[in-house]
Write a structure and sequence with these properties.
Blueprint: E1 3-6, E2 10-13, E3 16-18, H1 30-88, H2 92-125, H3 129-134
Helix pairs in contact: 1-2
């Protein structure tokens, strides 16, 4: 929110000039303008702090999801190898079973991605530093 005071035009709040204080309806004076600007600056600083903290929590959610996905990558490779081995040996029943196993593993990984997206959405809905600091990330 860009806010500043001009003696001729009044207080500029989000690109609109106000000749009177929006909360009291009284004309601006030096004290009311200074108080309003202080409140606006404090609000902007608080908003910046919340936004930065949100980004940190979201980054942590992504990091944890990535670590879990990386930890499961060997299962994907093993399932692919077993399916390929069964296919090359001509054992169609075993190949189908291994393909189903691979689909199950991939579904688990997709569920982890979906959960990560849900957690990110939850974090986006939080509005205060206290809520963000108290937020527990659980997969």
């Amino acid at each position: 929110m860009k806010t500043y005071y001009d003696k001729q035009q009044g207080m500029c709040i989000n690109g609109n000039f106000w000749q009177v204080h929006p909360e009291t309806g009284k004309p601006w004076d030096t004290d009311s303008a200074a108080d309003f600007l202080d409140k606006a600056k404090a609000q902007t600083d608080n908003d910046d702090g919340v936004a930065q903290l949100k980004q940190q929590v979201i980054a942590r959610v992504k990091q944890l999801a990535y670590q879990q996905l990386q930890g499961q990558q060997w299962r994907v490779e093993r399932a692919k190898e077993r399916e390929l081995q069964a296919t090359l040996s001509g054992n169609d029943a075993e190949a189908t079973q291994q393909r189903d196993n691979l689909k199950t593993i991939l579904a688990q990984r997709e569920a982890l991605r979906v959960k990560s997206d849900e957690l990110e959405s939850e974090v986006q809905r939080l509005t205060t530093k206290a809520e963000l600091l108290a937020y527990v990330i659980e997969f």
